[in-house]
Amino acid sequence: MFDLGTHAGFILASYGIAVVLLAAVVVWILVDHRALKRSLATLEARGVRRRSSRPDGAASGGASAAGTASDGAVSSEVAP
Q1: 80 to each of 28, 47, 64, 71, 77, how far by Cα in Å?
Q2: Average pLDDT score, the chain
Q3: Which residue windows are transmembrane per the record (predicted)?
């Protein structure tokens, strides 16, 4: 195969760790995507709509509009 010399263990371990980390990131992204889709479906079922889906294309502009709060949490408040 390849002659990696005396550092073969370190080289192969580095590649192994990189592959495991990349796989973990991909799994994390897929799990997070499914959770966000589920959360969005729940909000839409409760009547909260995305601002981008309004027919006139206008955003409400209010800080209490449905969306994300400053801490990243999803807010279920609907703007008047």
Answers
A1: 36, 13, 9, 23, 9
A2: 80
A3: 12-31
Predicted confidence at residue 69, as pLDDT, reads 54
| C-alpha of 21 from chain center | 17
Rounded to an integer, what distance in angstroms lies between the CA atom of residue 26 and that of residue 6? 32
User: What pTM did the predictor assign?
Assistant: 0.55
Hey, what's the torsion of the CAs at 72, 26, 28, 51, to 10 degrees? 30
User: What is the distance of C-alpha 68 from the center of its chain?
Assistant: 13
Q: Is the dihedral of CA 59, 60, 61, 66 positive or negative?
A: negative
